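Target protein
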Amino acid sequence: MDDGLGMPLASLPCRNPVTRYAAPHRFDPYWTGIWDTHHSAVWVGRRDVELTRHARLVRPVRSEIRFADDVARAMLVERPGLLRALGVTGMWRTISGQQIAAFTGEVFGKLSDDILFSAGLLARGRLLTGITGLRLPPLYRTAWTAPLGDIETQVTYQQWLALTAGVPWRNGPQADRHNILASELGLRCAEYGGWPCVLGESMAQFNQLFGDDKVPAGRNWAGDLLLVRADGLRVVVEVSASAGVPFAEKADRWAQFLAQDKTKATMVVFVDARRPDRSHDRLGQVIHRSMKKSISRAAFKSMDRVTAGVDERMAIVRWDDWFPGPHHAAPEFLTFDVQRPTGPNDNRWEWASVTDPFEVAGPKDPKTAQAIIGNARLLYGLPHWLGDGPKPDVTQWLLRHAGFDTPPVAPHVRRGRSELRRYRRERFGGNAERVDDQQHDR
């Protein structure tokens, strides 16, 4: 039943097999509470606690750092569930405990928190609000001061690959409220959309999408999340709550790279996530029109962008076009409807369904583009229910990389005994059999 707020998420088929962690049971970060907070959370990591203790600014509290760092890291390596939680946080940058549980399918409780915090790998955060009694879920992000370090040498190659995706371990942008929205949107796409692959910010970097040779050195440009359609089309989502010069520069950068993308395997969707009580007021409408103008101007800025069809691969949508109320979704979200500047000058913006390959064209080489779907099934940051299916054989790759066609096998024990007998014959001559018997009796 549509009550003007769309359909309750609880009434929709959900792909997340662990119901208690699904969207209807998670905190709704857009419609409830966090707009009356500062956009960044207050954070504390193990190093912060140690410094304040050393300066004698606070009394030591045992529960803050429950384990020695080496003990905590050893415990982490022994618990695959914690490695998955760490991988999720590293990929999605800022995330709530509820969202970690949804991604991994396992509760993220106090012991998990204590181990990762004590290991110096995660920082704890909370959003400050002026609303009395508002209970916001705890937040987590990777700690600034702690690279993986010895963790990388203690896990298997497959675990390391699942944890890092083979890219450098870094913190990435830390716009906390923005990142929580991106994480929630990624989960909902995985739960209620038909996307076979949903990945976070660390997998939406320009150098991964377009090649290292196309991106200037030192530029860590990236989208907020990456959706992959069944035919391999990569849909990068940019969540934004403001327009102006930074937004125009971002739109122009996307248009520049999309024009150079001969594979036509990538498109970008900007999600206008201005706070709900202001998204449709006069200022909200002005900001949304400004965003559209920046996208359209970028898509038609030069003839090479026009001939490359950049306008077909740049789109925009409001958050509340998809989610018109708390824990509700519109039918347009299920088909991922967006607006593109593909119409005539007097009616520029047209709606299109990104999930429909007849409305939004796929890549030129689907077979190559689809490889990311199978490869991503190895990663901890992928929602756990999307991990089923064929995966690359990491063991065989390692063997070939090391120069072996088959796994090396240790010499058989009998072979070792024959070599020992040969040595004894050479040394003891005719007495070798007697020496063998003596050794056997012993």
The radius of gyration is 27 Å. The chain has a mean pLDDT of 88. The first helix runs from residue 46 to 54.
